[in-house]
């Protein structure tokens, strides 16, 4: 669906039973679709998964998030991620350094701005990366009638995951993961972040983004799996995500895919994702099978699952069946 259809898509998702609709930073700005979605929905949560924090600054994000919180009547979640150095420096022409420390300070700065607005107090945030010390009345929207939005932070490496636990209201598990990697690396880092601030896990939300390929028969399922292979090959080419591959003894694949991406061989990269690796990182099956696998895979640690769907069933009821069975 295109940008203009975002409102209608969100409305259908609300009708189908989704708890949240997420936009992401790709060919379009992640915030504009949510403006349209806020006008066409009444119950579903709306958020960014993710908006690139370092392409912006805390003041910009603070204003956008509060406006979307108002438009959605309290349903907005500000989801932030770092992206990787080449995109920040070469695509956005912004500085890159110490991403975990910078993200922690970014979130604290956004909250400081919101606090100044809510309490009508002097803004005086001074950090290593961001400084916000000016807020005149003309630029102060005041306290939000629906309260401040929640902030979710995405991460793969342990430092960023720990930051999410320390300063976020929630954590996005990146789609490029395996249950074994989560248990060994991700969840312990999250617990360290929570413990650092004396926070309880019960007051924090884990949203597990999971790649799901759907098909009603073998032919459909293979088409869906091919789409997922292409996505995984892109993720696997990124040095920042190599830890997942290393955990499973597949780290040598990362530089191979990275080199292919630099040579523009995007169409060939998916062939490097074999069935064993695909099944390690994703879920495949009919809607009924996929729902059972999602519950078994994520039920023990995730407060919500966000399926990244590759649906080749051709059945408009397939997604509704997946959701109903997965939430049973």
Task: Describe what you observe in this structure.
The chain is α/β, with parallel strands linked by helices. Helix content is 48%, strand content 16%. It contains 14 helices and eleven strands. It has helices at 6-16, 32-40, 58-71, 85-91, 99-119, 158-167, 179-196, 218-236, 242-247, 253-262, 266-269, 275-281, 287-298, 318-326; strands at residues 20-23, 45-48, 51-52, 76-81, 125-126, 131-132, 150-155, 170-173, 205-214, 283-285, 304-311. Strands 1, 2, 3, 4, 7, 8, 9, 10 and 11 form a nine-stranded parallel β-sheet that branches. A two-stranded antiparallel ribbon has the order 5-6. Helix 1 packs across helix 2 (32-40), helix 3 (58-71) packs across helix 5 (99-119) and helix 13 packs parallel to helix 14 (318-326). The protein is globular. The protein starts with 5 loop residues before the first helix and ends with a helix. The model has no long low-confidence stretch (mean pLDDT 96).
């Amino acid at each position: 669906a295109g940008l203009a259809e975002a409102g209608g898509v969100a409305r259908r998702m609300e009708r189908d039973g989704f708890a949240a609709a997420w936009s992401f930073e790709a060919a379009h700005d992640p915030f504009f679709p949510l403006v349209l979605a806020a006008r066409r929905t009444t119950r579903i949560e709306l958020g960014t998964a993710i908006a690139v924090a370092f392409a912006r600054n805390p003041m910009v994000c603070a204003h956008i998030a509060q406006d979307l919180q108002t438009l959605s009547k309290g349903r907005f979640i500000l989801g932030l991620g770092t992206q990787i150095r080449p995109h920040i420096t070469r695509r956005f022409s912004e500085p890159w350094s110490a991403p975990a420390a910078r993200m922690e300070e970014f979130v604290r700065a956004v909250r400081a701005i919101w606090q100044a607005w809510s309490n009508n107090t002097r803004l005086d945030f001074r950090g290593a990366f961001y400084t916000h010390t000016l807020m005149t009345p003309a630029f102060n929207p005041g306290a939000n009638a629906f309260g401040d939005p929640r902030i979710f932070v995405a991460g793969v490496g342990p430092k960023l995951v720990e930051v999410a636990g320390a300063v976020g209201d929630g954590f996005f598990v990146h789609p490029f993961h395996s249950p074994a990697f989560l248990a060994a690396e991700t969840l312990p880092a999250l617990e360290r972040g929570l413990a650092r601030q004396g926070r309880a896990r019960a007051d924090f939300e884990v949203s597990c983004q999971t790649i799901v390929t759907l098909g009603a028969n073998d032919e459909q399922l293979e088409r869906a799996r091919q789409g997922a292979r292409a996505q995984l090959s892109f993720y696997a080419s990124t040095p920042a995500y190599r830890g997942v591959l290393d955990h499973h003894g597949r780290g040598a694949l990362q530089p191979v895919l990275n080199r292919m991406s630099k040579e523009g061989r995007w169409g060939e990269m998916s062939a490097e994702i074999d069935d064993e690796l695909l099944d390690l990182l994703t879920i495949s099956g009919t809607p009924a099978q996929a729902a059972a696998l999602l519950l078994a895979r994520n039920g023990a640690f995730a407060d919500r699952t966000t399926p990244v769907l590759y649906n080749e069933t051709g059945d408009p009821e397939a997604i509704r069946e997946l959701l109903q069975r997965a939430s049973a």
